[in-house]
Design goal:
elongated, 86% helix, mainly alpha
Length: 76
């Protein structure tokens, strides 16, 4: 695997982890509050969302870069 593809894959994995970690925490807390089983509910939400987020970020990040570049008139 060439370094650019490897970079993009690792970026997708890390970005998904950071975003999903925060978003599932906030959404789970908003939906159920600080209940006794909050951590297990949150970890379940995290595991489902992470599996979905990695491929979405992997495939949509390049599209977002191109769209941003076009909107701002720069080469992405």
């Amino acid at each position: 695997m060439n370094p650019q593809k490897k970079f993009h894959l690792v970026f997708s994995i890390i970005m998904a982890a950071m975003m999903v970690f925060i978003m599932t925490f906030v959404i789970t807390l908003t939906n159920v509050g600080w209940v006794p089983n909050f951590i297990s509910l949150w970890l379940h939400a995290f595991s489902v969302a992470y599996v979905v987020a990695v491929p979405i970020i992997f495939f949509l990040a390049p599209v977002a870069r191109k769209l941003t570049g076009r909107m701002l008139g720069v080469t992405a």
